[in-house]
Each structure stands twice: as structure tokens, then as C-alpha cells.
């Protein structure tokens, strides 16, 4: 398993990129009717994100791959795909959805990824609210997944993600 850890991690990351496109496509093709499938696709995307990093780190003797270096872009692809789904399905006004998407991309590419994180969480927040209202069981599944992931990754959130975010905020004035 360790021999193929990076390959499997890369496949999980690539699957997340494809899921982002698929989620946007579901919005364009099926609109609101695809909400249950979109929720499941988001959960699958989150699971791939949860697994790929530890799997890649389990083989430190293998060099980081191109896909591994672009893991964060896979997360961004899913968020953008979800934002487009919400616009295509008319859960969110186009100007709001595209505005958040544009703001996220500008912050991501021109300031810092860490500072863009709260903005690329917006589509997920809107999905949770929508799912809780229209498909409550799946909405609660999203919340349950997030709580479990937070408990399991608490140390990393505390020691890595939050400091990176607050460093990015501090650097706004620089």
C-alpha cells in the first residue's frame, strides 16, 4: 500500500477536481432536481480530501507530485463547481454567486489561499442551508460529516489552518 500511496492520493485529488466539474454540470443539466446527488457528491469530495493528504504523507520517501502540489486547487474546484450549481439551479442569484466566486478567485490567486478559505466556504454554507430545508436527512449528513472531520482533524486545524488564516489577515495591512 505504501508503495502506491502517492498514486492513490493523486487519484483521490483528481477525483475531487472531476467532482467539482460534475457538480457544476448537474446544475446546468438538471438544476434543482439534482440537489440530492450534489449533496452526495460534496460528501464524497470531502471524504477524498480527508483521505488524500494523510495517504500522501504516509510515503514521505516519495517525491511530491504535481497533483499533490495542487491539492488546494482541487478543493477550490469543488467549491467553484458548487457555487455554479447553486447559480444554475437558481438557489442563489447569479450576481451574488458569481460575485462570491470572483472574490474567492481574486483572493486565492492574488493575496493568499488562507485568506480565500472563508469565501470558498460560502457555497458549502449555502448548500447546507438549502439541504436542511429541502432534503433534511442529507443536510444533517453534511453537518455530521463536518463535525466528525473537525474532531478528527482538530490538531491540524488549530496548529496549521487557523494560524495561516490569521497570518493572512495580519498581512492585509502590509
For the record, the count of structural domains works out to 1
Tally the helices. Answer: 9
Architecture (CATH level 2) name: Up-down Bundle
Strand/helix succession? HHHHHHHHH
Secondary structure elements and pairings:
Layout: H1 5-30, H2 35-57, H3 66-69, H4 71-88, H5 94-110, H6 113-120, H7 122-134, H8 136-152, H9 154-170
Structure description:
With 174 residues, this protein is mainly alpha-helical. It has a single domain, classed as Four Helix Bundle (Hemerythrin (Met), subunit A) (Up-down Bundle). The chain contains nine helices and no strands. The protein has helices at 5-30, 35-57, 66-69, 71-88, 94-110, 113-120, 122-134, 136-152, 154-170. The model has no long low-confidence stretch (mean pLDDT 86).
Key features?
174 residues; mainly alpha; Four Helix Bundle (Hemerythrin (Met), subunit A)
Amino acid at each position: 500500500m505504501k508503495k502506491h500511496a502517492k498514486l492513490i492520493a493523486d487519484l483521490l485529488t483528481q477525483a475531487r477536481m472531476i467532482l467539482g466539474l460534475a457538480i457544476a454540470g448537474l446544475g446546468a443539466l438538471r438544476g434543482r432536481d439534482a440537489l440530492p446527488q450534489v449533496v452526495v457528491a460534496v460528501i464524497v469530495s470531502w471524504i477524498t480530501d480527508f483521505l488524500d493528504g494523510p495517504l500522501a504523507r504516509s510515503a514521505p520517501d516519495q517525491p511530491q507530485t504535481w497533483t499533490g502540489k495542487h491539492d488546494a486547487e482541487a478543493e477550490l474546484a469543488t467549491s467553484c463547481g458548487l457555487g455554479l450549481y447553486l447559480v444554475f439551479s437558481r438557489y442563489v442569484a447569479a450576481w451574488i454567486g458569481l460575485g462570491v466566486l470572483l472574490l474567492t478567485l481574486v483572493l486565492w490567486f492574488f493575496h493568499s489561499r488562507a485568506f480565500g478559505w472563508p469565501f470558498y466556504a460560502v457555497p458549502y454554507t449555502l448548500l447546507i442551508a438549502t439541504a436542511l430545508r429541502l432534503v433534511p436527512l442529507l443536510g444533517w449528513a453534511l453537518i455530521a460529516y463536518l463535525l466528525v472531520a473537525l474532531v478528527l482533524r482538530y490538531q491540524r486545524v488549530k496548529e496549521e489552518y487557523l494560524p495561516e488564516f490569521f497570518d493572512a489577515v495580519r498581512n492585509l495591512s502590509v
